[in-house]
Amino acid sequence: MVTPLTTLVFLDSTVSTSELENFQNEKKIIISVDYLTHKKLEKLKIKNLILDDFLNKEDRNHIYDFVVSKNNWYENLRSNKEFLINDINILSLFGKLEFHELVLKNLIKFFSIKNLIEEFKPTKIFVTKKTYSFIKLIVKDEIIQFLDESGNNIREKSFNTNFIEIRFNFLSKPFTFYLSKKKYSKIKEFIENIICKVNRLWLSTNYDDDIVLLLEFNTKSYKKLILELRNSKKQVVLLNRRRPAIFDKNSLKSLKKANVKILNPEHFFNNKTEQEFSLEYMRLEQEIKKLWQSEEIYKIFSKDEFSFWPLIREQFEMIFSYRLDDYLKLLLEARNIFEKLNISTILCLSESGETENAILQTNRNKSNSMLLQHSFKRYNENIDKHQWQYEDQNIFGLKCKKFLIWGESDFNCFSKNQLIEQEKLIISGSPRHDELFHSDETFETKEKKNILITMSPIVIRSGQGDLDLILKYNSMIGKLISILKKFKNSEIKFKLHPGENPHNLILLDFLKENSESPIFQTKNIMELIPSSDLIINITPEIYDSSTVMLEGLILNKPVIQLILDEYFNGKKLDDIPINQISRIEDLENLLEQFFNNSKNFNSILLQKNQKIIGK
User: Fold this and answer.
1) pLDDT tens-place string over residues 161-187
2) Is a pLDDT exceeding 80 seen at residue 271?
3) Which of 46, 134, 404, 409 is 20–30 Å from 144 (CA)?
4) Are 214 and 221 in contact (CB under 8 A)?
């Protein structure tokens, strides 16, 4: 019996639309590697298989756990000592979350391709250069043939590139352009230097009183906290390398009122340090180049007898080539800062950023350090275990001495997990939400009902956010728009998450194609909530619930959470304090109640919502 010949064609975003059209009458098996390609193929009515479908949830969980086990990969190096600066391994400044997402994304793609090839056993494979790097680790070159890539070679914009998104709204539509991080830093440095010199905001390098150091704080969101810290009788100092410390006239006025000083790391980089930097940089550059070529690195980044180092090597080389000077300079500046200043307390909003990482490692727990809780998610004890799997503190641990959490539900959740001792947990409330409790917002009977739809993007962190989830998200939005069109007395506004995320671009394109309602991304959410009559938050995965829901609840707005996570399929949600819906039919029923008798609906819904505020 002759085995039938099977040809696989892997298509991705680098293939032009005209090239895709050539596959309309082909009998080959077409594989769409990404969402944009799948969308084009569907439009051309070309039958295609989705690559993501060849890796099930169990396999994804297994890969996720494996990647978490590799977070401290540099500790296993035999040459570990060669990378130490002030007893800190410079490789550790490569952000934990950035590393996690980079490796997870590549392994998911690799094992999806591997499973697909094992299932079809192809005799010929057509690929792009982008996909070839994965396939060549699985099959021999003899059966591989390259496709024409005359289309747009789209830059992958994600958390691990060396560009940042500059976003703004024009005529109620978000626009984006990209700027290299180094150019951004130069522009930021130039502007801050003028403002801080004129207003005498720079901290002197000879300052000898006790300091409370705030790392990468948004001075607008934490204005009240910064003002209250004046009462500590210690000098409040901001160290903001990523984000500006001064946003506008109001933030400048607040900083001056609170007598806040801004720390410029460049002021702690003197001639002696510059000489040290030059010598260490040349040494480290050579050591890192040797590491990338070593057998050891191939073994460290191996799974199931496959070394996936070739898949991530180019990105590692690019990142360290681009950032090594920043990493080294930051470590030397951090050392000098601690030698010259009396830092008694460190406050941070995250531990995974480069600034926080370098400062906390240099501190070595000498000064009191505190992490402020950022996320809003522990309001349903039935899913605590599911959420804990993806918590920062579970994945990366806790570096700070204390963890300042919002309420009892958070305390109970973290107390269940033995990775954090109860003595480190302090219930402090949420400083950036305190002012909202004093708002005088009340419901007004209006002819038109303003519906604010906030959308959390799909992220890489869990490894479960596949193409099917993107399609489900689009479908839910489309159905929601159709339902709301039935209610003539409704006005809709869409709010995208302000962070950098590739899925935001997909959501934006979908909304532009399917709705004429205004879309916001950079607009302050507190400018949108007060005028809203109902907030609907779309959550793709339950571990990543948005704080916009809490902000709405505090301002006495009815909030509904539409959850796409399959974890909730078939679950009874009536006893949960927040209004969680997993089916579009249930949401439609709630919307009918809202529009038919909004006053009574608001009363019932708010009564349920307020249960969570005290927690």
Assistant:
1) 566 666 655 555 666 667 777 787 888
2) yes
3) 46
4) no
pLDDT digits (tens, 9 = 90+) for 196-209: 999 999 999 999 99
The 3-class SS string of 261-294 reads EECCHHHHCCHHHHHHHHHHHHHHHHHHHHHHHC
Question: Structure tokens of 552?
Answer: 């709405």
CA distance 519 to 203: 40
Burial call 397-422: b when 16+ CB within 10 Å, e when fewer: ebbbbbbbbbbebbbebbeeeeebee
Q: What is the DSSP string of 435-501?
A: GGGG--------SSEEEEEEEPPP-STTS---HHHHHHHHHHHHHHHHHHHT-TTEEEEEEE-SS--
Site of tokens 């297994």: 62
83 and 74 Cβ atoms separated by less than 8 Å: yes
- H runs (alpha helix) in 486-574: 502-514, 548-554
d(CA 148, CA 21): 12
Residue-wise burial string across 466-488, b where 16 or more C-beta atoms lie within 10 A, e elsewhere? bbebbeebbebbeebbebbeebe
Distance, CA of 162 to CA of 318 (rounded, Å): 9
Q: Indicate the residue type of 77.
A: L
Least confident segment among 192-201, 418-427, 569-578: 569-578
96 vs 80: CA distance, rounded Å: 18
- Count CA atoms within 13 Å of residue 412 on its CB side: 12
Q: Is 278 exposed, middle or buried (0-12, 13-18, 19+ CB in 10 A)?
A: exposed
Among 393, 441, 447, smallest CA distance to 415 is for: 393
Give the pTM.
0.90
- Contact criterion met (CB below 8 Å) for 567 and 485: no
Burial classification of residue 315, based on how many CB atoms lie within 10 Å of its CB (0-12 exposed, 13-18 middle, 19 or more buried): middle
Residue 221 has phi, psi (to 5 degrees) of -70, -30
Q: End-to-end distance of the chain based on CA atoms, in angstroms?
A: 68
Beta bridge partners of 159: none
